[in-house]
Amino acid sequence: MKFTPLFSALLSLTAALMLSAVPVSGAQLKALIIDGRNNHDWRSTTPHLKKVLEETGLFQVDVATAPAKDGDMNSFRPKFSDYSVVISNYNGEPWSAETKSALVNHIRGGGGFVSIHAANNSFPEWKEYNEMIGVGGWGDRTEKWGPRLYWEEKLVRDSSPGRGGSHGDQHVFQMITRSPEHPIMKGLPSVWMHAKDELYDRLRGPAENLTVLATAYSDQITRGTGKHEPLLFSIAYGKGRVFHTALGHNNGADITSQRCIGFITTLQRGAEWAATGKVTQKVPENFPTADAVSSR
């Protein structure tokens, strides 16, 4: 069928108008936050996480909430394969075998995963999850789960017997960048102050294909270990990428640590890296300094 020049021009104009109507969000990365159970107040944390991810303009964020206590966990079946990155704000009852397998297959196949604070307490008996997050704490973890990590001029893997996971008093502390060329950390100060938080220590796990991005000194004055404790990690898991932040405690509705610009920036950049393998976001001008916390 032959079209007249006028009709062809109208067709081209219509197509152009249709393309211009496609929302910008169509190009966004799809992210999924998992919550529903946690020993922390996930109800105050999840909206904040969603907001700071969406404000980058990079992410369209959905939330999947697991059933409440005594609910049917078999009904919890997020379609992980629909998402570029899955963010865990979850620490609770085990998922079904089907749901666990779906997450493992998605991340191994090239998906992204982000573990936030107490999410590294989750699933102590789930072998693949421990491999995915690199190290974790609590849940009766011991040396059987793997070495504890600390930094002493370089990363030390200590296989001596002991518990996995503890912390001293909540306090403000300095973060020290250990992998300045990693895309998540590139451009960040070598030392920066983090808002009042729990400083996790004695984390243990397989720690395979793991890079320590930043540490903090766990001072014995605050009932710490006297060691530089790794708190930010990247992990390669199959074809996938994992960003693990041990930062982000909350005290009920008080989310002081999560309002720290350092926490927000590393989460935003970590999520982008987990989803794509690169970071396009600039370091904000109000990022914390070596001497001062910067918060919202």
Describe the protein.
This protein has a single domain (28-276), classed as Rossmann fold (3-Layer(aba) Sandwich), CATH 3.40.50.880. With 296 residues, the protein is α/β, with parallel strands linked by helices. It has helices spanning 5-20, 42-54, 97-108, 127-133, 261-276, and strands spanning 29-35, 59-65, 85-88, 112-116, 148-151, 155-158, 166-167, 171-177, 191-197, 200-201, 210-218, 227-237, 240-245. It has a nine-stranded mixed beta sheet. A two-stranded antiparallel ribbon has the order 5-6. Helix 3 links the parallel strand 3 and strand 4 (112-116).
CATH architectural name: 3-Layer(aba) Sandwich
String of helices and strands:
HEHEEHEHEEEEEEEEEH
- Describe the largest sheet: 9 strands, mixed
Number of domains: 1
Average predicted confidence as pLDDT: 92
What's the CATH C level?
Answer: Alpha Beta
| Rg, alpha carbons | 21 Å
Tell me the number of strands.
Answer: 13
User: Beta-strand level of the residues, as a percent range?
Assistant: 25-35%
Q: Unreliable runs, pLDDT <50, ≥5 residues?
A: 1-25
Order of strands, widest sheet: 2-1-3-4-13-12-11-8-9
Number of helices: 5
Helix content: 10-25%
Structural class: alpha/beta
Descriptive keywords:
single chain, 296 residues, alpha/beta, Rossmann fold, nine-stranded mixed beta sheet, two-stranded antiparallel sheet, globular
